[in-house]
Write a structure and sequence with these properties.
Blueprint lengths: L1 H35 L2 E6 L9 H15 L3 E6 L6 H12 L2 E6 L5 H10 L4 E5 L8 E6 L1 H15 L4 E6 L4 H17 L4 E6 L6 H13 L4 E4 L5 H8 L3 E3 L13 E3 L1 E3 L2 H13 L6 E4 L6 E3 L8 H16 L9 E2 L5 E3 L7 H5 L16
Parallel strand pairs: 1-2, 1-3, 3-4, 4-5, 5-12, 6-7, 6-8, 8-9, 9-10
Antiparallel strand pairs: 11-13, 14-15
Helix pairs in contact: 2-9, 3-4, 5-6, 5-10, 7-8
């Protein structure tokens, strides 16, 4: 009887031991799998990745991120409207396991705030907005610096002294760009004026091209844009005129028209931010990077751009890069003659981010949103 009891005890011990070892192995395997699984990073885009503009530039940044940071997987959703669909898209990315999400359009701001509040362990980055939270940061670049430089090219190129500007929505970001561009134009050509047409679109190739045509009919011989498609540049080329593109190098779409244009380089920012999150050092901030950071720049010059224009632009660019001078240093008047920035002063970032007035040289007023 004693031998039987001893045998039963030995068998029970063996079962417990094997079970314990199996459980330990399972836990170890699960831990190792979690350690090797890639971190998922999500993106939502306002337009298609093939728009050749804003979304294309962000998607190039996403690809750069995948190339430079090991063991991550990116997921993107394109053509997401700035309404309740944005909330659903963000939720979708969270459910797919994304731990870092970049929302790349101004109109996603409130959707980001709502969804981020439900998922405190997910880091959200919102492009061009101003609302933050513990797990929400904002990011943008001082594209107005590159716009000023592109204005120099336009101001030196125009023969009619009428420059057209195809603008998206009357929000501070767009108004600031128009003003910076106009200041650049008039720094080399005080007689030039800038006419603005609003499309109330980010991505509508046909509408944006027609807006450019209307400006050409009003005597504009250079067309600038704050739009996500090359439509305005194509309209300029078809009319035998010139253009200042935006977002990416658009010369291939209108090689005879495009002088240059402000461009985005999101890749380094995405790499820096994702690495910080993975390292546990990321903290919510409102990033607004200058040209010196490399997040904004000018596209390569078209063949028609003279050495005189290049020299003028590069000289001013060095002043911007040094930090000794910036676009909204006074004196600056608005287009009613009111002084907005006194001589020797710089417009505050707060005022830049809420800009709702036009500088001298821009025709018309800013529509109410």
């Amino acid at each position: 009887m004693k031998k039987i009891l001893a045998l039963i005890t030995l068998l029970l011990f063996a079962v417990v031991t094997v079970t314990g070892c199996g459980s330990g192995k399972a836990e170890k395997a699960a831990t190792e799998k979690a350690a090797t699984e890639p971190t998922k990073v999500g993106f939502i885009y306002i337009g298609p990745v093939g728009d050749a503009g804003w979304t294309y530039a962000h998607d190039q940044g996403r690809k750069y991120l995948e190339e430079k940071v090991p063991n991550i997987k990116t997921i993107y959703m394109e053509s997401v409207p700035e309404n309740a669909d944005a909330e659903r898209a963000l939720e979708n990315l969270v459910q797919q396991g994304c731990k870092i999400i970049f929302a790349t359009s101004y109109g996603y701001m409130d959707a980001v705030q709502k969804v981020a509040a439900k998922y405190p362990d997910v880091v959200f980055l919102h492009c061009s907005g101003y609302k933050t939270a513990k797990n929400v940061g904002t990011y943008f670049g001082r594209i107005y610096q590159a716009r000023y430089l592109s204005g120099i090219a336009a101001g030196k190129t125009t023969k009619t002294n009428t420059i057209g500007y195809v603008a998206a929505f009357p929000i501070p970001e767009v108004v600031r760009g128009i003003n910076a561009f106009t200041l650049g134009v008039r720094s080399v050509n005080p007689n030039a004026k800038v006419k603005v047409v609003w499309t109330n679109t980010w991505y509508d190739p046909a509408k944006e091209k027609e807006a450019a045509k209307s400006l050409l009919e009003q005597g504009a011989d250079v067309i600038a844009q704050h739009q996500d498609t090359p439509g305005p540049m194509q309209a300029a080329e078809e009319a035998g005129k010139f253009g200042i593109s935006y977002n990416s190098d658009m010369r291939k779409f209108a090689p005879k028209a495009v002088l240059t244009g402000p461009v985005w380089n999101w890749g380094p920012y995405y790499v820096k931010t994702v690495k910080a999150v993975l390292a546990g050092t990321w903290k919510s901030e409102q990033y607004w990077g200058p040209m010196a950071d490399g997040v904004v720049d000018l596209a390569p010059y078209g063949d028609m751009v003279s050495e005189d224009i290049k020299t003028a632009i590069e000289s001013k660019k060095q002043e911007i890069l040094s930090g000794k001078w910036d676009v909204f240093f006074g004196p600056i008047k608005d287009n009613t003659g009111k002084e907005r920035v006194p001589a020797g002063q710089d417009l505050s970032d707060k005022d830049k981010l809420s800009m709702d007035w036009f500088v001298e040289g821009v025709e018309g007023t800013v529509p109410k949103q």
